[in-house]
Amino acid sequence: MSLNRRDFIKASGATVGGALLLGAMGESVALASPIKPIPLKKQIGETTTICPYDGSGCGFLVAAENGKVVNIEGDPEHPVNRGAACAKGASLRQLSADNPWRLSKVLYRAPAGNEWEEKEWDWALDKIARNIKTTRDASFIETDGKGNVVNRTEAIANLGGSALDNEECYLICKLNRALGVVYLEHHARL
Amino acid sequence: MTNHWNDIANSDCVMAIGSNPAENHPAAFGHITIAQDRGAKLISIDPRFTRTSAKADVYAPLRSGTDIAFINGMIKYVLDDIDNNPDNYNMTYITEYTNAPYLVNPDYKGPADLEGLFSGYAGVSNEAENSKRKYNKSTWQYQKDATGVPIRDMTLQDPNCVFQLMKKHVARYTPEKVNAVCGTPVATFLEVCHTFAATGQKGKSGTILYAMGTTQHTYGTQNIRSYCLLQLLLANIGIAGGGINAMRGESNVQGSTDHCLLFHILPGYLKVPVDADATLADYLKRITPTSSDPLSLNWWKNTNKYVVSLLKAWYGDNATKDNDFGLHYLPKMESGKDYSHISLFEAMNDGIIKGLMCWGQNPAVGGPNSNQERAAMDKLDWMVVTDLWKTETAEFWKRPDADTANINTEVFLLPAKNSWEKEGSVTNSSRWMQWRYKASDGPGEAEDDLWMTDQLAKRLMKLYAEEGGPSAESITKMDWNYGAGHPDVHAVAKEINGYDLTTGKLMNSFANLTADGSTSSGNWLYCNSYVEPEAEPDAPIPGNRSSRRSLEDGPFNIGLYSRWAWCWPVNRRIIYNRAAVDLDGNPWDEEHPVVKWNPAAGTSGAWQGDVIDGGGLPMNQGGHYPFIMKSDGHSSLFGAGMAEGPLPEHYEPWETPVDNAMSNQTSNPAFKIWHPNEHGTSDKYPIVCSTYRVCEQWQGGQMTRNMPWVIEAQPEAFVEMSEELAAEKNIANGEKVIVESARGKVNVVALVTKRYKPFQMNGKSVHQVGVVWHWGYTGLSTGDSANLLTPHVGDANTMIPEYKAFLVDVKKV
Amino acid sequence: MTINKVEKYRKPIRILHWTHAFSFVILFLTGLVLFIPALGFLAEDGWTRFAHRIVAVIFVVAPVIYSILDPSALVRGLKQAFSWDKDDLSWVKAAPRYYFTGNEKGMPPQGAMNTGQKAWWLIVIIFGVMFAITGMMMWKGTASASISQWLVLIHDISLIVTGTMFLLHIYLVIFHPKMKGSWDAMASGKISVEYAKAHHGKWYNEITKGKGKGS
Amino acid sequence: MAEKAILYDATKCTACRGCQVACKQWNENDEFIPTIQNGVNSTNRGSYENPIDLSPQTWLKMRFTEVEPSGGKLRWLFTRQACMHCTDAGCVRVCPNGSLYHHELGFVAYNKDTCTGCGYCIDACPFSVPRYTRNIITGFAKMDKCTFCTSQGLDRIAEGIEPACVKTCPPKALRYGNRNDLVAEAKSRVQVLKLKGYSGANLYGENELGGLHVMYILEDSPDVYGLPVDPQISGLTAAWQNVVQPVGWAAGGLMVAVLGLNWLVARRAGVNKETK
User: Fold this and answer.
1) What is the CATH number of the domain that holds A57?
2) A158 assigned to some structural domain
3) Touching check for A147 and chain B: CB below 8 Å?
4) Which of A138, B558, B602, D90 is 20 to 30 A (C-alpha) from D196?
5) Is residue A106 in some structural domain?
6) What's the domain count of chain C?
7) Residue-number span of the structural domain to which C11 is assigned
8) Helices (H), B634-718
9) Which domains, ranges and CATH numbers included, belong to chain B?
10) Which residue of B has its CA nearest to D39?
11) Is B123 exposed, middle or buried (0-12, 13-18, 19+ CB in 10 A)?
């Protein structure tokens, strides 16, 4: 796995070079110095996944070493794409944790703030839960003008997410409805 | 999708309208190529010559927003041809499987009689007052016999039957009118008609592939209906290689819709309760369709079972018969009030909405009239965004014209994991639910949204248990047990599938769900997806059918791949497949049978092939009507449920450079107008504009605009325009220009191309341009979003915003 | 010993010669690795190309500096290179016999440079300029593919001509028994009177006529 | 061993550019693009065609051409621009040390580690494919071009896997296989296209330059796609190997021979040493 490409070629190059000096001076055509095959330095992939882009649902294979993605390409068995990938699909590796623009820390912007501040999860989740409760309780409509029990809040809205997994969508829906959220929308409306 | 990706290869004619599969569903386009190799024709109908058009056998340009005129013209061609060559069409299908023979109330009148309106309109032509922009639909109803069963004329000759009404309706859409409305040359239009109508023959199939070019109009739903009508007349629904197929633009927009992150429905497309639903019984009565016809299966009659099972999944033991299974824990929306995307942002702008949670969505780029939507966010007290990136939405307070110091919104930006850094399932356009695994680590402290939701729920449950609050029980009584640490995604998936609460075993089918509280199912459509291990032992995750990877072609070798992943409902790969056979249960297309009645099988015959829609016997043996999800069992050529009319009628977009060539009613009489003052007129904005995507970028761009490889391939926002327009405006290819609408303006690169041509409509020339909308002000590649231009108007039925046809002007910088 | 010597080359010109000679040798060898496939491996990683460039600068700049410091020498040198007369023709006719057998018959008296040296000097000027021009253009690297191929071709032809003549030059001064004195001329700057009389008769006469001693 | 090749069917290609990116992905041409104030150093020039040209980081790019004969139908033609892997390869002819060489399966493989950076191949390629980045002062340079996915440690061919571009192609416009089979297949496809009305359909690369290992099925003349109709090794490229080098050897050899002879003859003749 850790076979270093340059070291390998340096070693073999020296041998080839020596041989040339000794024996090949008179030949009219240069000896080719083809590269010596070494095993693939990255796996094609072992974990199947489904493309996060459009709704085709193409299959991909993710290869990771020590939790780090080294290669992603189409899953040749997948009936939709048979190993194929468009420009976006082919670029999936740049979506991995190595992309320096990926978020890796909770960020917080205080009211009127100019910049993001890094925060801890616990702090943020507690504060969000508190915000939700404050807004919900202040705006909650238990019964409407006609006396109907309606148990809703119109002060909290929820958007997203077609990019999420089914299980996530389901729980977000469950939680929001339990909170009384009626402004519940996502990409499908757009 | 009624059908699925692989099935496109079975088609004899593929019509891409309102879609651009080569660019927006590129990997799935391979199935179109296979069909073409088999001799199938590809028709591309688009205002602009796209990469799909480049591969098409027939390309027809049409002005943005004129699909209905075009398709009605095709329907007229088909109906005329049926008169002349009935043998070329499947008349049995039309009379037996659709509502063509249904008799409509004789008082019904259509646009041919009423200058573009249907009978029952509350206002007058071009009514401006929102409260009057609606119909009383009483004249649109069927004539019924004494038992309440609709009356049919199987000869299709009665002047009040749907078939004749439709004929009268479309008679006005002559090829010349189509040209006058759409700008499509008559010869090209007729070539499309002739090519696609050839699929009306028994044994031939044609499919319509559509996407947002169809839906994102003030009459988007009617656009789809016009396709349905055409496909039903050509007997193309239910068969292999047929169908009308909505190609979804996001990996799980199908699944997120199935789980109903939408204001008007609960998981499984169950209508949400409203204020007047005082009891469960009231609620069920309101939302459950009925049918008096014993031959109509009316599947939605099971609504009560699905509702109760959902409530059991959400509130567990706290959902009892005595408390209406916890129905009243849920919010009830105000009757008739719209809470959709546009309304949501209007409410935010009005200061009603104080807090916003945004899960991987980027409305600051993707929302219509996004200048206004961005400004509305200033009024929030707090906002939570979960994403992989710093999106425009999360950084709305950093937008170019933001008054940052006076924006008092607290913003929490939570780092999320991407799709292979966590485990769970997604559902593609084909309705295939496919399991994904964790393959690598996320960056730093990134977490998945499941964990975040679980954490918030746990903290809120604790807060409400400790401190109480209005309807605290809605939260504290939830059945929320997915583990103490990281939530177990399999537990969630199983809850969605549902349990037999008596035995504790996973349900195997929604057919067995009950309304007495003895079963649970978080989403009845997904019941059958995650079963007991012994019911699906060979799956990589035993019991989890979405993890299946068998490459068996499936029954009849038509590429169903029935044992690859899992597909709702109950693994039925082609829905409405009852329509794929004749009355005896024999397939119309022997070469590509979807299902088939085998009288020799079992004791008294059985269905073979795909999972049959609804079971039972063939119709000739007393079986039910084929369209089981319709209350009357027949597919609707005439749709009384629509807001703006039971038949699709051409209206101009809200902003249009021309008068409506079909009637005096300029635009859809039933959609809501939010800001009449933001209406652009053609004297100031003479050019039609559409927004769209390209293959190399994605949606609001938050994903791809941080990915150097694709940025390199498509680096900047651009506006495509014809050489003729560029010459008029003295614009050179590659230079920066300003595109301006009544809402805003964008500064983008001019891409001057032969692929746009001015539309010649009955002598009038109209220019159209197109702007890609992927860009915004954050990320590695920045630029103006085309949605600065789009209006806050939406479809009359669904409120999908109008993104595809509005007016602009183009200027040199 | 010193009494009978005359100064043939002054110090600056000797410095120029050796600078140029060494740089040529290095350029020749580092260029050869691209010309002889079997030596190609030596060019891997581009060190020979780097060396070629550094030395090329010396090769071009050295004569330029010299010319700037002593423009009259440039004029004199160019005049010499392009002054040909009947004696040169006679030299060419007689030279083979002389160099193979030592028979001086027909060898006309020569100036400061004999005809052969003059020819070499002319080649150095012409192809030196060619090397410099094509080399600089290749270095700049903005020429079109076909022009660029012409540049390589001209550079290569220059290599062949100068390289071949360089072999001759080296041979004569190092190995040819009759020419050993020319080594001294460039090494110490002085040659014996006898050598001067025999090989550069005209020149010797010129310098003795005027001043009695070499300048 | 049977020669391998890639067959590119331009009539099926949708220019999704999966190949353009997959090539970078597999071959690790994945340097993050330098940014100008967080914007990307790449601009739209009024075309879908980006980046502008092949580069050491871009071994394969799609070319877009709009063609509209007067009175005829508009067509949008897509072409692949990458190494054509010629049998008579100009780059192989001029490569001074065999860094470019013919793989035993026929295509032009490349050993980047031994590349001297001379750039001769760049001038010698009839398709203008190889690119290098060069330090203008030192001249340090490495050429880059498509290696048919045989780069060291990234050799898909040796593993029995098709090249990355071929694998990723959704409409299967790219095929990989035995060259003879692909030629036969392509010919029948050309016939099909002719029957469909593309009278100008042709197979490009069957015989060009001794046979290319990347062949194109085109619906029109190659020049419409921006390809040379009759690609040739230029006289200068041929001259370098066939004339200049032999002449050089001959001239040098002749001189050595003459001098050697002189040395022998002069010694035998007893030419006097010069008296000092």
Assistant:
1) 3.30.200.210
2) yes
3) no
4) B558
5) no
6) 1
7) 2-73+101-210
8) 708-713
9) 1-93+170-249+574-632 (3.40.228.10), 341-428+431-467 (3.40.50.740), 676-812 (2.40.40.20)
10) B781
11) middle
Query: CATH number of the domain that C57 lies in?
Result: 1.20.950.20
Question: What ranges do the domains of chain D cover?
Answer: 4-225, 234-271
In A, which residues are within 8 Å of D18 by CB distance?
84-87, 89-90
| B471 confidence band (pLDDT: 50, 70, 90) | very high
How many Å apart are CA A140 and CA A155, to the nearest integer?
8
pLDDT digits (tens, 9 = 90+) for D219-228: 999 999 999 9
Scan for tokens 């691209």, then name that residue: C34
Instruction: Assign C92 a pLDDT band (cuts: 50, 70, 90).
Output: confident
| Tokens (6 digits) for C154 | 């001209």
**Which residue in D116, D131, D134 has the most chain C C-beta atoms within 10 A of its own C-beta, making it the best mutation to test that interface?**
D116
Does the pLDDT value for residue A15 go beyond 60?
no
Which residue from D55, D107, D92 is spatially nearest to D214, judged by alpha carbons?
Answer: D107
- Assess A10–B contact: CB distance below 8 Å, yes or no: no
Name the CA dihedral angle for D182, D187, D191, D193, rounded to a multiple of 10 degrees.
50
Count of the separate structural domains present in chain A: 3
Closest alpha carbon to B26 in B750, B695, B709, B780: B695
- Distance from C-alpha of D214 to C-alpha of D145, rounded to nearest angstrom: 14
Separation between Cα atoms, residue C114 and residue C50, nearest integer Å: 37
pLDDT in tens, B503-518: 999 999 999 999 999 9
Q: How far apart are CA B750 and CA A177, in angstroms?
A: 46
In angstroms, the CA D237 to CA D123 distance is: 8
Note the Cα D207 to chain centre separation in Å. Answer: 16
Contacts of B394 in chain A (CB under 8 A): 107
B710 contacts in chain A (CB < 8 Å): 87-88, 91
Report the residue from A80, A116, A189 with minimal CB separation from B799.
A189
Q: What CATH code is assigned to D4-225?
A: 3.30.70.20
Token pair listed for D255? 């001189």
Question: DSSP states of C21-64 as a string?
Answer: HHHHHHHHHHHHHHHSGGGGGGGGGGHHHHHHHHHHHHHHHHHH
Residue B719's SS3 state is strand
Please tell me the pTM assigned to this model: 0.92
Q: How far apart are CA B689 and CA B691, in angstroms?
A: 7
Q: Give me the domain span that covers residue A147.
A: 140-189
Residue numbers in D near A85 (CB within 8 A):
18, 22, 168, 170
